Amino acid sequence: MAMTRKQRRSSLIVTALVILGAAVGLVLFALEDTIVFFYTPSEVAEKNIGPGQRFRLGGLVAEGSVIRGQGTTIAFSVTDTDKTLAVNFEGILPDLFREGQGVVAEGKLNASGTFVADTVLAKHDENYMPKEVADALKKKGVWKEGQESQ
Amino acid sequence: MIAEFGHFVLILALTCAVLQSTLPLWGAHTGHAGMMRVAEPAALMQFLLIGLSFAALTHTFMVSDFSLKVVWANSHSAKPMIYKISGVWGNHEGSMLLWVLILALFGGCVAAFGGNLPQDLRARVIAVQGMIGVAFLLFILGTSNPFERLNPAPLEGRGLNPILQDPALAIHPPLLYTGYVGLSIAFAFAVAALISGKVDAAWARWVRPWTLAAWMFLTAGIVMGSWWAYYELGWGGWWFWDPVENASFMPWLIATALLHSAIVVERRGALKIWTLLLSVLAFSLSLLGTFLVRSGVLTSVHAFATDPQRGVFILLILCVFIGGALALFALRAPTLKAGGLFAPISRETALVLNNLFLTVSAVAVLTGTLYPLLLEALTGDKISVGPPYFNLTFGIIVLPLLVLVPFGPFLSWKRADVYGASQRLMWAAILALIAACIAWYAMRGGPVLAAFGIGIGVWLVGGAISELAWRSKLTSGDLALSWARFRGLPRSAFGTALAHAGVGIMMLGIVGVTAWKQEIVLVMNPGDSREIAGMTVTFKGEAPRRGPNYRDIVGTFEMRQEGSTETEILETSKRVYIPSQQPTSEVAIRTFLSGDLYLVMGDKVKEGRTVRIYFNPLIPWIWIGAVFMFFGAVVSLSDRRYRVGAPKRARARIAEA
Q1: CA distance B395 to A148
Q2: What digits encode the pLDDT tens for the residues B266-287?
């Protein structure tokens, strides 16, 4: 019944490969299912994103667009200076949420084309803009050097 | 002058590190004792010089010398002294200086306490430490000089990012760095062993305490960061699977695997090659973490400044060290002799499984962390891989490991008896089952998985207690004998039990807050009340208040528990820091053993003040579990086996016999 060194080693390797294989399958499945794409308002228009698909929307909070509704509901627009998209959100906004500042919101479009966000991401610091937003604005050519101080 | 002095001694430290990384290595290669003896004084001198440089930088922060660029950018004269000091590492340049200081400290420790190591091994270990020192000192001097002057000197500084002005965050970076950089010792030992081709029990006995110490600090650092995020960011969460968190979590997972595999090398002489690989990987992930955090490829509170030059430099260091070590590994590993045999059911196999699950879980975390970077580089698509991915993959991979953990200590080396181990764990299993049923019943409608998780938490704690009870023969009925045996158990047995129980306690906390968290967002006016988790929270009103470098609007709340007439006052505030005009929220937390009541104020709206009230069940248990894990490591480190000189005495005994 005693296994040889070789048999023992190969049974170990097989176990390891089974676990690794299961994990790879799991990782691939999870990646397929859980990742969220990042779009600017222009990309949302270009790619014809339908209602119900979850994504992250990034850009600047349009000047003068923030309207506080009943209680903790709030409406604002996100712009990349080319296209603008209306956003609804219910909850408490991060401390650094301001008009004219970068923002990332996660949620879905509703049937009327308004973005319903369930999360609005906080910046940690006055000194930077979410990287995705900065990159997107650079691509649009509206990035001003010095906007990102330091 | 002091700044110039700091800069100068840092350059001296570099020359010292160059000597340290070349001469001893050459000496060990040629068997020249004189050259090997350079290692210790060089390592100690390097530590002294970097220490002086660090002291010089700290001095400039303490006296608010705004002629220094980093002081100007990160400090302010009105800041409390503790945050002036923590400001030293609250920025890129200073934190890198802290990084090399700790690196040199570890090198110095090997030099000072490594007297019982074979001379060639000691020389090689210190030389490898020296090489890492050279790379990072070049990085600091070339791209991130903390002693850069400004001319003319500004009158006032810009202030430290207010959310970093916090006691937990003042000590989070030093703890985390001690953990990160401590893994460099395991790396240096592995590279030294690969060069010499010798890996034996004595080697493992040397590596393990260093890894354990690094692991202990890494645990403390990660938890401190998590705790800070919990009470400072005001979102009620404690772990976000943020890439920066992952950057510290991956080395932790591999270091945990390494801790366990080193036991096998020490006791049984098996798994040598694997242990070497883990030692290399653990520090490689520390370097990767440093790269991710410091290069600005990720955005977070840790990305102090984005400078592509720095990113490229760290990437280069990363490639040289990881690539070099792995190449050496590929070259030398096949020549190492394979170790002891073991049956498919044995302590060795249990530890191999532990390693498999931990490593695979680290790979899953690594994939999720790097995939967005990779995809953006390849296709330009921007994606985010968030908590759903990590919870799914990491959760499923780690669950079987947690179920298996209590079995490990009951299995004997070489060949073990699963049936016997199961019998000894019967009480733990029964308790776990009861706990799961109670959880399921008490939280009707709650997820089944949560009840299962509670069961696993109790299973881990029960398993740890069962192990101590079994080892002290509690079932024999002779209490005096059991007590004597209990006291005679090695410290490492208590360390294991504490750490494993800590994982169980943390698991209870994680399951509790994830499955049963309550959150209410509402608008309140003075006098309004709201009930949550058997408590009534009443908003009393708000008033302005001034702090040393901020202005507060303090909201006062009254909390009363159901059936009690006693009330407690809780305060939370919206804070604006004066130098930067940056707003933050200060949360109010009232901790009970059953969970935290957590209050945050939001904006003022026309109907009143928006308020967020959370009840986070069992969350304190996460921190309690971490304290158990930390002390498990402390107790284990105090085991006689690891005392300075222990290997020498052990060898002497063997020689006598």
Answers
A1: 38
A2: 888 888 889 999 999 999 999 9
Element (H, E) at B550: strand B550-561
ipTM for the whole predicted complex goes beyond 0.90: no
Q: Write out chain B residues lying below 8 Å of A57, CB-based.
A: none
* Among B400, B398, B153, B359, residue whose Cα is nearest residue B260: B359
Please say whether the beta carbons of B496 and B466 come within 8 A: no
Mean predicted confidence (pLDDT) in B558-582: 87
Provide mean pLDDT across the span A100-107: 84
Token reading at B170:
């003042």
Q: How far apart are CA B25 and CA B30, in angstroms?
A: 9
Contact B68, B147 (CB under 8 A): yes
Max Cα–Cα distance, chain B, nearest Å: 86
d(CA B235, CA B229): 8
> So what's the pLDDT on residue B383?
83
Structure tokens at B541: 């009103």
Token code pair at residue B143: 């791209």
Residues of B in contact with A27 (CB under 8 A): 363-364, 367-368, 393
CB pairs under 8 A between A and B: 127
Give the one of B361, B364, B603 whose C-beta lies nearest to A93's C-beta.
B603
Tokens of B80: 């409390």
Cβ atoms within 10 Å, residue B568: 13
B301 interfaces chain A, CB cutoff of 8 Å: yes
**Cα→Cα distances B534→B235, B518, B596, B615, Å:** 22, 12, 12, 10
CA distance B258 to B212: 9
Q: Which residues on chain A place their C-beta less than 8 Å from a C-beta of chain B?
A: 3, 5, 8, 11-12, 15-16, 19-20, 23, 26-27, 30-31, 33-38, 56, 68, 70-72, 90-93, 95-96, 122, 124-128, 130-132, 135, 148, 150
Q: Residue B195's closest CA among B286, B320, B325, B282?
A: B325
Contacting residues of B for A31, CB less than 8 Å apart = 367-368, 371, 385, 389
**Omega within 30 of 0 (cis) for the link into B526:** no
Q: What average pLDDT is seen over chain B?
A: 88
Quote the tokens at residue B111.
């030099």
Distance CA B217, CA A109 (A): 45
Identify from B381, B389, B607, B611 which residue to disrupt to test chain A contact, counting A C-beta atoms within 10 A and taking the largest count. Answer: B389
CB contact under 8 A, A92 and B383: no
Between these two residues, B269 and B97, which has the higher pLDDT value?
B97
Is it the case that residue B164 has pLDDT exceeding 60?
Answer: yes
Rounded CA-CA distance B511/B614 in Å is 16
Cβ of A71 within 8 Å of Cβ of B610? The answer is: yes
**Given an 8 Å threshold on Cβ–Cβ distance, is B381 in contact with A71?**
no
* Angle in degrees, CA B441, B443, B448, rounded to 5: 80
Instruction: Give phi and psi for A93, each to the nearest 5.
Output: -80, 155
**pTM for the model:** 0.91
